[in-house]
Amino acid sequence: MENERAREKLIKWAVKSPLTYRLLRPVLDLLTRKNDNEPFKIWVRFLLDAMNNSYARKQPVVWMSAFTPSEIAYGMGYVPFMPEIIASVVTYLGKSKGPIALANAYASSDLCSFHRCALGLVMEDYLPKPDLIISSSYLCEGANKFFHYLASYYRCPHLMVDAPYRGGSAAKKYVADQLKELVDKSSRLLGLVPDMSVMSQALELSNKARAYIAEINRLRRSRPSPFPGSEGLSYLAGMVFYSLGSKWGVDFFKTLHLSLEQKVAKGEGYLPEEKYRLLWLHHIRPYYKNEIFKILEEKKAAVSFEETNYLYWPALEPSKPYESLADKIISNIWAGSLERRVHAIEEMVEEYDIDGVIHFSHWGCRQSCGGAAVVGDVLKQKGLPYIVLPGDGADPDNFSPGQTRTRLEALIEMLG
Amino acid sequence: MGKRIYAGIDIGSLSSEAVILRENGILGYSVRNTGADPQRVAQECMEEALARANVAKEDVLSIVATGYGRIRVPFADREITEITCHAKGAHFLFPETRTVIDIGGQDSKVITLDERGAVTDFAMNDRCAAGTGRFLEVMATALETKLSELGQRSLEAKKGVPISSMCTVFAESEVISLIAEGKRREEIMRGLHEAISSRVYRMAKKLRVKKEITFTGGVAKNQGIVKVLEVLFKMPVNVPDEPQIVGALGAALYARSAGPRAR
Lengths: 416, 263
Prior knowledge:
The complex is a heterodimer. By secondary structure, chain A is of the alpha/beta class. Chain A has one domain (2-415). Chain A is 57% helix and 10% strand. Chain A has a 4-stranded parallel β-sheet, with helices on both faces. In chain A, strand 3, helix 8 and strand 4 form a beta-alpha-beta unit. In chain A, helix 2 packs antiparallel against helix 3 and helix 5 crosses helix 7. Chain A starts with a helix and ends with a helix. The relative contact order of chain A is 0.12. Chain B folds into 2 domains: 1-94 and 244-263, ATPase, nucleotide binding domain (Nucleotidyltransferase, domain 5, 2-Layer Sandwich), CATH 3.30.420.40; 95-239, 2-Layer Sandwich (Nucleotidyltransferase, domain 5). In chain B, the strands form 2 sheets. Chain B has a 5-stranded mixed β-sheet with strand order 3-2-1-4-5. Chain B has a 5-stranded mixed β-sheet with strand order 8-7-6-9-10, sandwiched between helices. Chain A binds chain B through residues 373, 380, 385-387, 390, 398, 400, 402-403, 405-407, 409-410, 413-414, 416, and chain B through 68, 71, 79-84, 107, 118-122, 124, 126-127, 206.
């Protein structure tokens, strides 16, 4: 018992020490020197750097919900910390069950398991304390309440960006005004003077990354599919959420672009043989150990694209940060009317020459799964096989391997 | 010309079935409880079906396995999901079938199919076994009735007592409370049958249900469910003579259409 307590204390100390992440960097570089997945290695280095900065606390640490533009944090010189992304990493490392179980004692089990995982980590005091929390009203309804609760837990200020249901110039102004207010308020709260040239630089970096994302997405139309959907739903999506506005983002997307360019030139697919091309709907997949992508691989079905990586926003204007980030926010296809999302999905089906569609249904997630039936109706009318795959992104106890296999295999059998 | 004999085996969560098929129809079949060892029951089921069909194992040209335990049948040449196999089997027995309702031990499914018997869409229950064969087994025990009599007795009631819970555990408590309140058992049974059927009906509404509907799986033996489904869907429901073997039959039909295994 004493040993167990000492072990836990040591682990917590290591997790919270910036030194751990600085030491891990050369160790992981050495261990992965033969791994030629350069983009993945950049993701790992990015995470280590983010953790180092978050625990070192040399700059203000600002917790952000995943859909809040990270450019704001980089542009303000804050260290962004995204608990939802960290929860997915913790899940990937097989450590989500404990925090979720702990959070279940305080939160409804209907709450998103990524939020419950993060809550458990908060309660166990594993995460760096926030100086400020920023969240957005889109597209996850639960996120604002979750972050509001965390703000009261940590007794730190909470600022929120509210996005209207419909777009247009009034909506853009409404969001742009809020962003300006957010920058002013957060600077006041944190005792900083905003440097708008740094903000412009962040937007320029975001634009550079965006240009590579556009090229990556174009390359992913190739047959065979050059990039695994399972990775598109993990570190690629993670970098879209977390790194835009930083040099890391440019480096990552540039490297991924180069790698895909080479693969496409050689005609290399990520599967040994590709018979079917699938589209994955929803922003996430289960990150704990599971056989979803192995089953699909056995059936020669590639997840050729994921809607989460759809490039929905126009290039930003560095001289007009508030207006162009407002544009980015109101262009989000998952916020507002479902029609916009459906049109984008139809476009993806066309562009990626999709044979079948999987809509992952993450437990407790209303924003995306609420539209699953409507999306299905539209796709089925086009004669496209479509399944809703119920599961849970973070909680391995809320996953049925047998039923999942049956649904996936039945989809493939429908493809003929 | 060889004997052209094919087999299908369906390893379900509660029961397992094997069907031996010849060009002109079913030669023999067997139905067994799956128990804790699906691999062993697959072997026993196949041996029993072969014995009943009076066929030697060596004469079977190809075997397809289906059901949740399909990946645990070492002697199968191919695995196909029960969704695809139930559609095929139902279409073979009732060629005008365009919708299949399959309620098995722990799963319920609604499947739509085309004129060739190929699946066009499906819906299935999610995670829990509410409204399936296992649910009825537990309720029959709570009502101190044989499972085989549950459906018939439910038809003796003019109206059902509403059952609010579909969780097997909570519904069992609810049934016990209703008995204690003095409600007629037949009315409770009818209420249970209505609750299960409504659940399946709601699932079916996600799809484009077309006639004819064929009801497969062990629960199709329950006349009480059949009658309520006919009322809900406003059309007659086909029930095969042996609804439990439809998945295995579909598997055997796929074995036949694929031809002999590579030797």
